[in-house]
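Q: I have 256 residues here and want to know how they pack in 3D. Can you give me a structure?
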Amino acid sequence: MKMMTATIFEETEKDIENAYESQSKSKIEKETSYVLSQIIVIMLGTFKNRLKEITFDTTYLHFNEQYILSDQNRSTLLKWLKRLMVLSQPTSDLEFGKLKLDLEEWYYQISSQDISFEYRDDYLIKPKQAAELLGVSNVTLNKYMKQGFEHIDTSSHNKIPKHAVDLWKDPVYCIKMQYLYQEKKRLRQTPEERLSEVHEEQLQYKKKYKTPSIEKAFEGMNIDAMDDPSDYYEWRDLLEEEEELTKLIIGEKNSE
């Protein structure tokens, strides 16, 4: 797969700058779509020994308007252009994994839709092998998988992409992998499924503080003065999400 030529790079760079200078929504969407398509085409060609397919809704790509019009997206588009100029093999599994996660992260910022990656069978390893490479037990690996350690839902014994092991050891990309896992779950879950999870997460706090009420759990406490008020804020966010999901589900039921 040929890299992007210097001429195309310069023309695209100018088009991006002009689109943002004029704040033309249609031009910005066009340049964002173009860069996205180039990333996917070049990745599928360059990493054909790892990737089978990258799938997303090409019939109607709904952009997050606020994000794509932002200076952050402009900067990201220009960074992707530079990466495309040098993208070629050989690339380590770690560098490929970083590229893949960076693409996912950007995609979920520009779009509210889902994207999925299908790997070659010989790029997947068994969970037992992944656990050995990480130096953990199979039980711990299963815990990691529930937290977001990348794995493929398949009937095959091989379900861990090789890059996942090295990325899990990298603090920045480990966090990114977990965040993207939650984003994908959010996109793929029904409101009812997410509400069930919210109830389960709330139950853990109720058990921890031995009360069904957040008010009772933190009664008399100055939240802002606490060394670690994360439990309070996370529990509060769950209650707010529960209310929103309940309204959504009731609304959907009433409209049926």
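Q: Anything worth noting?
A: The beta strands are 51-56, 115-119, 124-125, 160-161. Residues 230-255 form the longest helix (26 residues).
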